[in-house]
Design brief:
4 helices
Length: 117
């Protein structure tokens, strides 16, 4: 079993497997370093493409939620706002998660290059 998959005190087996799946380059590092590397990778600044993607993703979710739904005119306004808020959470997660993954992967690449000149 590779060293990266060995369960340690930092991450449980399931979490470690998910992280190894999402961030494949993370396997190149000892699992004891994953927490620090991920923390530094997540501090990576967004590049221009990611900023544009976030803005477009938020605009898309706002547009989707602004479309009239069945019976929206009958519901009380506070209930409609709550429903939109609840619907926005999974939509934002589905649309913006790839952008956050991309930024973290770039950060991991930077950390690996920094550790291995």
């Amino acid at each position: 079993m590779p060293k990266a998959y060995a369960q340690d005190k930092h991450y449980g087996g399931f979490t470690q497997g998910v992280l190894a799946f999402l961030y494949r380059r993370l396997r190149e590092l000892p699992s004891a370093e994953w927490r620090e590397v991920l923390q530094r990778a997540r501090e990576e600044a967004f590049d221009a493409l990611e900023i544009v993607g976030i803005a477009l993703g938020m605009a898309l979710v706002a547009w989707i939620l602004s479309q009239p739904g069945g019976g929206a005119h009958v519901r009380p306004l506070p209930l409609l706002y709550i429903a939109h808020f609840v619907a926005a959470i999974p939509l934002l997660a589905a649309i913006l998660s790839p952008i956050l993954l991309r930024r973290t992967r770039r950060g991991i690449e930077r950390e690996i290059r920094r550790q291995r000149p």
